[in-house]
């Protein structure tokens, strides 16, 4: 082998392997970043038809997976003052407004209950309380809903009801099914985001 031939062969070997090494370092960096920031977030933007005062409820609900529990942040305006049933419903289907979102998300086929009950629908998040100006601004943590499980709530619907959810403690049979929370005044589809930047992007586009 001449010196020139040797050099060519040497080059052919080193350049592709250099590229491979650089790629591997890159993949490693991306991987370790994903581990450092495992937060999975989702948002539902809520909207409803105008109420008797000609006000349309609007709002947003943010979900952040935190280990096995999910932090839920709720902002809503335009509600009537007082408590309103607040659930994850089975379908993220707005084709017929909030009516097409199906029933409470209930993969275990159990009875309706309160958020802190042992037996409840996965989607049973209790009530949110609007102040005298019709505003809800609240945060809570739930251990049953999830953004990662096979039973994830991503792609399903958030529904706010006209009336208070009796949490399954009422006397009518309907109590153990829906909590007698009445009509649906606002709803939205739960969408997954990797970062706050993605959420801002989505807001600008909608
Ligand atoms: C939700 O609404 C509140 C109040 O209008 C706002 O400050 C917040 O940025 C919104 N969050 C998202 C994720 O859109
Ligand atoms: Cu509901
Ligand atoms: Zn329920």
Would you give an account of this structure?
Helix content is 21%, strand content 32%. The chain has an eight-stranded antiparallel sheet with strand order 6-4-8-9-1-2-3-7. The radius of gyration is 24 Å and the shape is elongated. The chain starts with a helix and ends with a helix. The chain contains two helices and nine strands; from the N terminus they run αβββββββββα. It is of the alpha+beta class and 206 residues long. It has a single domain, classed as Sandwich (Immunoglobulin-like). The chain binds 2-acetamido-2-deoxy-beta-D-glucopyranose, copper (II) ion and zinc ion. Copper (II) ion binds next to strand 4 and strand 8. Copper (II) ion (CU) is lined by residues 85, 87, 89, 104, 159, 161, 181. GO terms for molecular function: copper ion binding; superoxide dismutase activity. Its cofactor is Zn(2+); Cu cation. It catalyses: 2 superoxide + 2 H(+) = H2O2 + O2. This is Superoxide dismutase [Cu-Zn].
**Integer-rounded radius of gyration:** 24 Å
Average per-residue pLDDT, rounded, comes to: 87
- Poorly predicted residue ranges: 32-37
CATH topology: Immunoglobulin-like
Sheet with the most strands: spatial strand order:
6-4-8-9-1-2-3-7
The amount of helix comes to: 10-25%
How many distinct beta strands? 9
Molecular shape: elongated
CATH homologous superfamily descriptor: Superoxide dismutase, copper/zinc binding domain
Quickly count the helices.
2
Largest sheet: 8 strands, antiparallel
Query: Mind telling me the CATH class?
Result: Mainly Beta
Q: Which class of secondary structure composition applies to the elements?
A: alpha+beta
CATH architecture: Sandwich
Distance between the termini: 66 Å
Order of helices and strands: HEEEEEEEEEH
Bound ligands, named by name, code or SMILES: 2-acetamido-2-deoxy-beta-D-glucopyranose, copper (II) ion, zinc ion
Strand content: 25-35%
Total number of distinct structural domains? 1
